[in-house]
Design brief:
The complex is a heterodimer of chains A (about 280) and B (about 650). Chain A is mainly alpha-helical. Chain A has a single domain, classed as Transmembrane di-heme cytochromes, Chain C (Fumarate Reductase Cytochrome B subunit, Up-down Bundle). In chain A, helix 3 crosses helix 6. The longest helix of chain A is centred in the first third of the chain and has 35 residues. Chain A is globular, with a radius of gyration of 21 Å. In chain A, about 30% of the residues are buried. Chain B is mainly alpha-helical and about 650 residues long. Chain B has a two-stranded antiparallel sheet with strand order 1-2. In chain B, a hairpin with a 2-residue loop joins strand 1 and strand 2. The longest helix of chain B has about 60 residues. The radius of gyration of chain B is 49 Å and the shape is elongated. Classes of the chains: A mainly alpha (about 280), B mainly alpha (about 650). At the A-B interface, helix 1, helix 2, helix 3, helix 5 and helix 8 of A face helix 33 and helix 36 of B.
Chain lengths: ~280, ~650
């Protein structure tokens, strides 16, 4: 945050590649959701309108598959990035996977989860979270799970003739249900729980732009990730992870993009609620 | 008697009449009657050869029986009736006999036709009344220029000439066909009566019976035109034989009419002519008439006024005053008339319904034209407009109609048939009458109707022949399915009046609703699959019912000939999915995840996924909701801390200022 025209120095939380990947994922996820849900909720008028906006079901299909390729690309790039991260910072997979900044769930996550629930009901202090909270880890692996489930079933629907060479025809009916319902879970979860956890919770409202800028105010690091902050201070590594904040124009652009993503996401949620509750057949 | 010398001695006394021939055998014997010399000669040879030869003279001249010769004169007339009572009686009642009784000197007696002493059997060609001679016997009096023809009220002229040129006369006189009718065949030999006498063989009522004595099959020939029994029952209404086949002039191909059109046009050419009763114009446009199909047609037969406006009486000053009925087209167009009477239109007419369309409503009157003529209201492209006069929404027929078809004309005009006919000018395109017929129009509910579901395939099949054949072999044909349920016919899928091209998107998109009216569950389940979902979005490209099942040749999937049978299904899928295999075809195209018995895998997959969804959302939702109060609290604290630090900063700034 810039105050009085003097650029404040902020803590670097995400690398440039991670930020790019997140933006790519938003674009591809939104595209997949919109084009896919037109089929799932084909019985609503909204679906027909959207389908025509996309230029017809065939074009929507191309968009859906292109976005899927993009999603696979994001996924693979991230895996490659992990590999490079291991080489650069951790040396071994073990260090990467079980170190303090690992995404893998650990015993401490369970303690923090229980601690959080206690805090929720007023029976304890807010746990001192580390670099990744348990809900962030959940979101992260939800994407892994989603890509595996939705991606694989999607491929059977993309190449039905190939897959029925060795799988029975009814398998496609099953994968259709899994693909469609898992997608509903993904969109529903991202656009409600993830949105709330990350952006809409009152202390962050209306959004947290850290994932786009890669920077977070030191104050916030101290408050939200006290354990990481303390570790950095203890290691004396905090200073090397600080950089100047982006100028206001960049922040405005980022916020505009964030608003757009939020708007699309909430529209989709409303559409899902409408389709499931009022138009379901 | 002095001038009759007795010459009996010259003849054999045993020969009958020998005594008489003694005098009458002399060729010169004669007398004077009424100032005329009359021969009294009797040719003995002819007499003896005649039918009466054996009777002798007194057999007929009975009053001379036992009289002294030479006898007194005159002897008085021979009474043929003594031996021929029937003929005598008939003659007495006949025109001829009554004339005799009235003392008409021109009246014929037996002798005038039959002769006297030389009467021969009728079969003998030498007989005076042998068929070949009858025309001349009658013609003695009934020939132009005779006193009878000139002075007696005989309506016909040139009788003998006309007869000899008629088909009957030609047969008798030129071809020597002795069975051909002579005068006596129609007029009878002895009971000759005027045609005005109801007992006459040529009375209007009896003429048909007279003609059918020979023309026994003629009723069958004319049944197309005139119902035979009416000739007997209502002979006055129908034309009699002679109305068309003029007496004495009968030809087999050509006959003129009893009344010339010119006679009618004498009054009806007047444009101002109006009916006194209601002021209706009675003007006949001769130009229009002369171009009508009743005047110019392929058979080159002209129809005269009096043929349609029958009941005219040419002997009246106003021949039309005897007309009591309006024109009945069915007297010639018999088959059509029968069809019409059975139709809804005809039934309304029978009930005197004011809305009922009669022949002229569609065909016009004097200007009637064939349906091949583009000027005709019944020409193919004019038919929709013609029917629209009553059947357009808001018009009288549309107002009475209680069925399901509305905006018929508007829909038809936009249909493939309507566009073909009215925009492309394809005169072979189906128009109203192609399906409903022109004269046998019946409601759909009538089993006789061409648009009754049972008959619709045949009706459409008139043009769509190959299709009908396919359909009749499909499961939708009752013959194939043996189903007692209501089965679809052409119009159930294609509609009746809004028929579209089947390659139009809207047709492809509407078909599921059409099939779904009966195959409800299948159609519903179809919409749960990719094909159905894309269709629902409004795209025609994905497979619709008939893309897989076939359209007109749809068969049960268990039928080996079905497009979806084990042997054919892969090829059917391959139409869109190149490389599709038999296993690919195992895709459940009508699957629903709501049926645990039929599709357990789908059912449990769906509910498994739903449980996963609900579980995740419940956990995520509860977590979020619990978080909310804490988060709000945090926000308040943050705000408070911010305000405090700002206040502190301001305070220290102020202090610095005051210090400064």
């Amino acid at each position: 945050m810039a105050e009085g025209g003097v650029a404040e120095r902020q803590f670097i939380r995400f690398t440039r590649l991670q930020r790019i990947l997140h933006i790519c994922m938003i674009v591809s996820f939104m595209s997949l959701a919109l084009t896919g849900l037109t089929l799932k909720f084909s019985y609503t008028k909204w679906a027909a309108v959207l389908s025509h906006l996309f230029g017809g079901f065939e074009t929507a299909g191309y968009i859906h598959r292109s976005a899927a390729v993009m999603m696979f690309g994001v996924f693979i790039t991230h895996l490659v990035d992990l590999y490079r991260l291991k080489n650069r910072q951790h040396g071994t997979w073990r260090a990467l996977l079980f170190g303090p900044s690992s995404m893998l769930p650990s015993r401490r996550d369970l303690t923090e989860f229980v601690g959080t629930l206690k805090w929720f009901v007023g029976k304890g202090e807010r746990p001192a979270y580390g670099r990744w909270t348990y809900w962030e880890k959940f979101d992260y692996f939800a994407v892994f799970w989603g890509i595996a489930v939705i991606g694989s079933t999607g491929l059977t629907l993309w190449f039905p003739v190939f897959f029925t060479r060795f799988l029975p025809g009814w398998f496609l009916n099953v994968t259709t249900i899994i693909h469609s319902d898992e997608a509903l879970l993904a969109t529903g979860f991202i656009f409600t729980v993830h949105f709330f956890n990350t952006h809409l919770r009152p202390e962050k409202f209306p959004m947290d732009i850290t994932v786009f800028t890669g920077r977070m105010p030191l104050k916030e690091l101290k408050r939200d990730k006290p354990r990481e902050y303390e570790a950095l201070v203890a290691d004396g590594k905090l200073e090397e992870k600080m950089e100047e904040a982006y100028p206001p124009i960049v922040i405005r652009a980022v916020r505009a993009f964030g608003w757009a993503a939020l708007a699309v996401g909430f529209s989709i949620v409303l559409w899902i609620i409408y389709a499931m509750l009022f138009a379901y057949r | 008697m002095s001038e009759y010398p007795v010459r009996a001695s010259r003849l054999a006394s045993d020969q009958p009449g020998a005594e008489c021939l003694a005098c009458h055998g002399e060729k010169g014997m004669s007398t004077t009657r009424g100032g005329k010399t009359v021969s009294l000669y009797v040719d003995a040879k002819k007499f003896s050869g005649s039918v009466h030869g054996s009777l002798g003279c007194t057999g007929c001249h009975a009053q001379l029986e036992g009289k002294e010769l030479p006898h007194d004169v005159p002897v008085g007339r021979v009474e043929c009736g003594t031996c021929h009572p029937t003929e005598h009686d008939q003659h007495a009642r006949s025109l001829h006999g009554r004339a005799v009784a009235q003392g008409d000197p021109l009246a014929p007696r037996c002798v005038n036709c039959h002769g006297n002493h030389d009467i021969l059997p009728i079969k003998d060609p030498r007989s005076a009344v042998a068929p070949l001679k009858v025309p001349f016997v009658c013609g003695q009096c009934h020939r132009e220029g005779t006193p009878v023809q000139r002075n007696r009220p005989i309506p016909q002229s040139n009788i003998l000439e006309n007869y000899s040129e008629s088909i009957h006369g030609e047969a008798l006189l030129k071809k020597g066909l002795s069975v051909a009718p002579t005068c006596a065949t129609c007029h009878t030999p002895h009971l000759i009566l005027p045609h005005t006498d109801p007992a006459s063989s040529i009375a209007r009522r009896n003429i048909a019976a007279t003609c059918t004595k020979c023309h026994s099959q003629i009723e069958a020939v004319h049944r197309k035109i005139i119902r035979g029994e009416l000739w007997e029952k209502e002979a006055n209404v129908l034309p009699a034989c002679v109305d068309c086949h003029q007496p004495h002039k009968i030809r087999n191909v050509f006959y003129t009419q009893g009344m010339a059109d010119a006679d009618c046009m004498h009054c009806h050419a007047d444009e101002k002519l109006r009916r006194a009763r209601d002021g209706k114009s009675l003007f006949v446009n001769l130009d229009e008439l002369s171009h009508s199909s009743h005047q110019t047609n392929s058979r080159n037969q002209k129809v005269a006024c009096s043929q349609c406006h029958s009941e005219v009486n040419a002997s009246r000053v106003r021949p039309c005053e005897t007309i009591t009925h309006s024109v009945d087209c069915a007297s010639c167009h018999d088959e059509i008339g029968k069809q019409y009477l059975g139709s809804t239109h005809g039934q309304l007419t029978s009930k005197n319904d004011p809305n009922a369309p009669t022949c002229k409503e569609c065909h016009g009157t004097h200007g009637v034209l064939g349906k091949q003529n583009p000027q005709s209201p019944t020409f193919a492209t004019n038919v929709p407009g013609l029917c629209a006069r009553c059947h357009r929404e808001g018009q009288k027929a549309a107002l009475r109609y209680t069925g399901t078809q509305h905006e018929i004309i508007a829909n038809y005009t936009e249909s493939i048939h309507g566009k073909g006919l009215l925009k492309s000018g394809l005169t072979v395109t189906a128009t109203c009458t192609s399906c409903h017929t022109a004269h046998r129009v019946l409601p759909r509910s009538n089993p006789e109707s061409t648009v009754n579901p049972a008959n619709v395939p045949a009706t459409c099949g008139q043009c769509h022949h190959g299709i009908e054949e396919q359909f009749e072999n499909s499961i939708h044909a009752r013959r194939v399915s043996g189903s007692a349920k209501e089965l679809p016919v052409c119009n159930d899928c294609h509609t009746a009046h809004s028929i579209r091209r089947t390659d139009e998107d809207q047709f492809r998109l509407d078909i599921m609703e059409k099939c779904g009216r009966c195959h409800e569950a299948l159609a519903k389940a179809y919409f749960d699959t990719y094909h159905g979902k894309v269709s629902r979005l409004g795209y025609a490209k994905t497979a619709k019912c008939y893309d897989c099942h076939g359209a007109h040749d749809v068969l049960a999937v268990t039928d080996p000939r079905s497009h979806l049978s084990r042997a054919n299904v892969a090829a059917t899928c391959q139409k869109c999915h190149a490389g599709a295999t038999r296993r690919f075809a195992g895709y459940l195209t009508h699957a629903t995840h709501h049926d645990p018995r039929k599709y357990p895998l789908l059912f449990y997959t769906f509910w498994g996924m739903t449980a996963l969804l609900l579980g995740t959302f419940v956990v995520g939702g509860v977590h979020t909701l619990l978080w909310l109060p804490r988060a709000l609290q945090m926000r308040r604290e943050l705000r408070a801390a911010e305000a405090e630090s700002r206040a502190t900063a301001e305070k220290s700034a102020n202090e610095e200022k005051s210090d400064g």
